[in-house]
Design brief:
This protein has 296 residues and is α+β, with helices and mostly antiparallel strands. Helix content is 34%, strand content 29%. The strands form three sheets. Strands 7-6-3-4-5-11 form a six-stranded mixed β-sheet, covered by helices on one side. The protein has a five-stranded antiparallel β-sheet with strand order 8-9-2-1-10, with helices on both faces. The longest helix has 17 residues, at 37-53.
Length: 296
């Protein structure tokens, strides 16, 4: 099933729904970071959550989710933008725990106790950051808790990642349902019952259901209007030019020390694991540039 994200409303705007299939995107993240199954599930769920939350952004706004627990996984950091591009990483990608009693990947155990932070950067001033204590570490419950209590928007969130025996991603996706003011009790009850009867998202995607089909399952018995369809992708803003500016900002003395002790510099982007190498000639050119700018 092709990755995609759909935005919709139900029952005359009584609720806002976003559904996404993110299998290929999560698989790319797994490959980039060489994540083990439990880490893959944690990262994949958070990447999908980032896409769902970022549908409220505009222009060049960005959103960053940080799941900071005390478990062996360390932190999970994801950044998404208004164009449905997302990137992210886990601090300990080779984390894998025994399954839970229900036979599921133990994401909650890997994350542990801690806090969820959501920062929205609108391009001016300091980003707005909200936080809540982690409810379970399973990501979906924590995002729903954040939206309900930090942003006062009653929400239901489902996120799922299914990992194959070879560690590759078989299925990934999720949905976000937010009730709007004035929604009738009948509409709320119907949506709650529909969600209660819904299989896990990873099972729905594994069975070949598209984002549109998932939306229709959530809204059985209610009028659904799909407003927009978007492609989703794993994309990072890093580049050699950006890292070059960072090296220049370090100053002449440190660059000369790197040149003398190593002869080259290799930098790795945390978000996408892309590696950038600056050889001897490039370092010498940067040193000349710094000297020309008077940064001695």
């Amino acid at each position: 099933m092709k990755d995609q994200l759909l935005l919709a409303t139900v029952a005359g705007g009584s609720a806002r729904i976003v559904a996404a299939v993110t299998t290929d995107l999560v698989e790319e993240a797994r490959k980039r970071h060489d994540t083990f199954p439990t880490a893959t599930a944690a990262l994949g769920r958070t990447l999908t959550a980032g896409l769902l939350l970022a549908t409220n952004l505009k222009g060049e706004d960005t959103l960053t989710i940080r799941v900071m627990g005390d478990g062996p996984l360390g932190g999970v950091i994801v950044s998404a933008d208004a164009c449905s591009a997302v990137r992210g990483y886990v601090q300990e990608p080779h984390t894998h725990l025994p399954p839970t009693e229900a036979g599921k990947l133990d994401v909650g155990g890997a994350v542990g106790k801690g806090f969820l932070y959501v920062a929205r950067d609108m391009g001016f001033g300091d980003p707005y950051t909200g936080s809540v204590e982690l409810v379970s570490g399973e990501i979906a419950e924590d995002i729903a808790h954040y939206l309900t209590y930090s942003e006062q928007t009653p929400s239901a969130v489902a996120l799922g990642v299914l990992v194959d025996t070879d560690n590759s991603v078989l299925a990934a996706g999720g949905f976000l349902l937010q009730m709007m003011p004035g929604a009738s009790s009948e509409t709320i009850d119907r949506l709650e019952q529909n969600i209660k009867n819904l299989p896990p998202v990873s099972s729905l995607v594994t069975d070949g259901n598209s984002a549109e089909q998932i939306l229709k399952m959530i809204t059985v018995g209610l009028p659904l209007v799909i407003h927009e369809q978007r492609p989703v992708r794993f994309a990072c803003h890093c580049s050699k030019d950006r890292l070059e500016r960072i090296l220049i900002s370090m100053g002449c003395e440190e660059l000369e020390d790197m040149l003398e002790t190593q002869g080259y510099v290799e930098l790795t982007c945390h978000f996408c694991n892309e590696r950038y190498t600056f050889n001897r000639a490039e370092l010498e050119a940067l040193i000349r540039q710094v000297k020309d700018q008077g940064q001695l």
